Amino acid sequence: MIQALSIPNDMMIRKIESIVALSDEERQAIKHLPIKIVDMKAYQDIVNMGDHPTQCFMVLEGFACVYKETIDGNRQILAIHIPGDMPDLQSLHLPFLDINIATLSACKLGFVQHEDARRICEQYPRLATAFWRETLSQSAIYREWIVNNGRRKSYTRIAHLICELKVRLNAVGLVRNNRFIIPASQAELADATGMTPVHMNRVLQELRADGLIKVERSSVSIPDWEALKLSGEFDPLYLHFVNEVA
Amino acid sequence: MIQALSIPNDMMIRKIESIVALSDEERQAIKHLPIKIVDMKAYQDIVNMGDHPTQCFMVLEGFACVYKETIDGNRQILAIHIPGDMPDLQSLHLPFLDINIATLSACKLGFVQHEDARRICEQYPRLATAFWRETLSQSAIYREWIVNNGRRKSYTRIAHLICELKVRLNAVGLVRNNRFIIPASQAELADATGMTPVHMNRVLQELRADGLIKVERSSVSIPDWEALKLSGEFDPLYLHFVNEVA
DNA sequence: CGACCGATTGACGACCATCAAAGGTAGTGG
DNA sequence: CCACTACCTTTGATGGTCGTCAATCGGTCG
Fold first, then answer.
1. Beta strands in chain B (DSSP E)
2. What is the pLDDT of residue B2?
3. Nearest residue of A to residue B123 by CA position?
4. Which of A79, A169, A184, A244 is the most exposed place for a label (fewest CB within 10 A)?
């Protein structure tokens, strides 16, 4: 029971240790951070624009996405979040949310009260730095998405998105035998890349025909990583991973 | 002389006080922060992708922009920075830069050594929070740009960009008589919105013809703010201003 | 006055959106 | 077990937004 309850804390420790080295004391502080586990089905809103959250969460299992909608009902997905991500960490310091966050698949989420997070940030400034850095590296991903959606053709754009997901999933151990899951429909990928589902479908067919990706249901494999990187003009530097270079 | 040297520090104090309330001690800490003033001409790179900066800067006067380039040489402007902004604050915690930053006009910049910034952040956690918040609100702008460039037609997109600049410039007192300066060519505005200069030119003509903006050289005025907001689907919430509502 | 840079215009074409319909697949219930 | 449903994927046809190429215009500066 106690063992089970510490899993999300261990996950958070791993996450933060991928950013900064931790002392035993800091590790213990996270170990004892109250985290409330919530299970959600696919396609549920977790938080909404305008909310004043009193807690933030880490994705423990499953995929979530950040999105906004325009007046005429078009949706733009701004970020795809995978296990280990903390999509609304910003709410620690921005009083209300300017985004919606929803699950893409069934998810297990770990909620942390803002007051608890603020407390350990004050007590252990290096943890604050680590969280800050986490938001900064998300920021770098936003920047790359602006470039990707703004200046790349759809073929390249999709290849780039798949490259990013592969590298990020790999970093949290979710790529096995060069194969990973993207639980997103073509319509959702289109919303992430600012395209229409129809065009997304056609370009995905091209990518498959060119042997750059192989898709079975929501599982994707990449036969030739270097070729896909090239097609996607993908350079993982913006992800700011310390260890791995893809 | 001493008076003159404190101007950038006063500017930083004003900036931070627009985010959090400061104690006298905190104010003094910023007052004594060493800031090195550098003047730059237009179209100069300030920092470049791959750099490992040991300092970060505040724009004191003039306009700067963050940009990236694709392999085929297309440029995407990711952010337009105005006086009071700290475009590479992220470099405090991300070891290398994933972006280029250049001046759009002649600029006066105030450089702060990382070690000095880190010192006051450690000593005064509320200052760290303020800087963190500053990066978070920039992040919110990135998000809105993804929506803007991804899901809005060019006409709406440009209107939105102009709205954003007007509100941000207004917040730092750079709008007078409903008129402000955007020292950016049409080509640069095109780079910011993911369009071509030719199309930018045509859409700007439309906006002028519709009476939404009046342009003289690089000076813009907005005859009917509500109409422009409507055309740009502009809602300033994402800017996270505490006081003003546009 | 000439050179240069940005704004403007025109012609043309490509990429991608839109609309509509059909085919596949998974899940549900009788 | 099969019919039914719902959702996603796929396909076709068509059109619009915007990109591309190229030339001209206009203002500024040395």
1. 36-40, 45-47, 55-61, 64-69, 75-81, 100-103, 107-113, 179-181, 214-216, 219-221
2. 44
3. A125
4. A244
C-alpha distance from B241 to closest chain A C-alpha (Å): 10
Is residue B74 located within the same domain as residue B7? yes
Listed residues B143, B176, B210: the one ending a domain = B143
Structural domain count, chain A: 2
What does the pLDDT read at residue A2? Answer: 44
pLDDT digits (tens, 9 = 90+) for A116-162: 999 999 999 999 999 999 999 999 999 999 999 999 999 999 999 99
User: Hey, CA dihedral for B185, B161, A78, A8, is it positive or negative?
Assistant: positive
Task: Give the range of the structural domain holding residue A203, as residue numbers without chain letter.
Answer: 153-239
How does pLDDT run across B84-118, given as a tens digit for each residue? 999 999 999 999 999 999 999 999 999 999 999 99
Give dist(CA B122, CA B215) in Å, integer.
46
- Which residues on chain B are in Cβ contact (under 8 Å) with A129? 93
pLDDT for the residue numbered B6: 73
CA of A74 vs chain B CAs: smallest distance (Å): 7
pLDDT digits (tens, 9 = 90+) for B15-40: 999 999 999 999 999 999 999 999 99
Distances, alpha carbon A44 to alpha carbons A78, A85, A145, in Å: 17, 17, 24
The protein footprint on chain C, as nucleotides within 7 A of a CB, is: 5-11, 15-20, 26
- pLDDT (0 to 100) of residue A163: 98
Bases on strand D under 7 Å from any protein CB:
7-13, 17-22, 28
